[in-house]
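Example record for the data management plan.
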Amino acid sequence: MKNRLMSAAAPVLIFTTLSFTTIKKQVDVEASTIEWTGKKITGATHTGNIQLKEGFLNLTEEGQLAGGEFVMDMNTIVVTDLTGEYKTKLENHLNDDDFFGVNKFSTSKLVIIEVKPLEGDEYEVTGDLTIKGKTEPVTFNMQVEEGSATAKVVIDRTKYGIRYGSGSFFSNLGDNTINNNFVLDVNLKF
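Corresponding structural encoding:
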C-alpha cells in the first residue's frame, strides 16, 4: 500500500516542479528607461529620469510573466523639464530628506509578488515597493512582449513618508500643493 501511494505521488511532484520552472531574464539597465512625472495641484508638471541599478523578469517557458525584481539607483534622479539653476535646485531638493533622502536611502526596490494574466500580453502585477526603507504594495498593469516590458506605475509618495507639500498633511499650501501621486513610465529591455 505504501509503495502504491509513493508511486502515485511521484508524477504529481514532478508535474508541480515542472509547472513552476521559470527563465530569469536580466534587464538591460543601459537600454531600459524609467521616466517620472510629478504635478502640483495647479497642473504644473515636472519630469525626469531615474536609472535602474539591476533587475530581472521571471518568464515561464511559454514566455508568460511570472515575477521579477528591480533596484533603482536613487542617486541618478534627474530633472528633464528644467535647465540651469532651477534644475539643480529641484534635483537637490528631490535628493534631500524632504523627498527621497538619497544619502541614507541610495536605492529603492520593487519585488513582484503576484501576476494575473489579462488580455493578450498584458498582466496585472502586484509588487512590494520599498522607498526610504518603507515597503508598501503597489498594483499596476504591465505589457510584456518579446524582449521588452512596459508599465505605468502610479505611486502615492505619502505611503513612504514623503509628505513635503502634501495637502493631505499641511493646510494653507495654496498653489504650492504637490499631488500625492507621482507616475513612473517604465520601459524595460531584456
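Summary line stored alongside the record: The mean pLDDT is 89.
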